[in-house]
Amino acid sequence: KDADRLIAGYTICNDWSSRNLQREEMPLSLGPAKGKDFATSFGPYMVTPDELADAWDDEGKLQLSMTCHVNNKLISEGNTNDLYHSFPTMIERASMNANLVAGDYLGSGTVGTGCILELRPENTGGWIKKGDVVRLEVERLGTLENKIL
Fold this sequence. Notes:
By secondary structure, the chain is an alpha+beta fold. The protein has a single domain, classed as Fumarylacetoacetase-like, C-terminal domain (Fumarylacetoacetate hydrolase, domain 2, Alpha-Beta Complex). The chain is about 15% helix and about 25% strand. The strands form two sheets. A four-stranded antiparallel sheet has the order 4-3-5-6, with no helix packed on it. Strands 1-2 form a two-stranded antiparallel sheet. A hairpin with a 3-residue loop joins β5 and β6. It is globular and about 40 Å long. The relative contact order is 0.22. The mean pLDDT is about 85.
């Protein structure tokens, strides 16, 4: 209840999913899988909820446009309103039978059309590889750019 009051801010996150490792862990695309504690990018800064007060719709969903470029080629466009659940609903679900504490980070998951697996690699120029530059831009949250080493 009132989970939205617990949000300190919003930022961009790229969790760098490794589909080859995911396939090894989840051969049927179902069931538990090993998580990773590395290779997650955040930034470039955190925007507080009051700075986005005018970006919410009547259904309680945040309205921010998003794009993803790989090597300066647009591969995805979306909007945070494409997320199935609202941010407060995500917090309520994540806190069921779990202790959340100040400073915990919760990722919303990928915005629709936001991942190469969903878009199909043959439509996006293939999987991300060494040397590629990935740029995520979210309206009012900035630009997060990383080069694959």
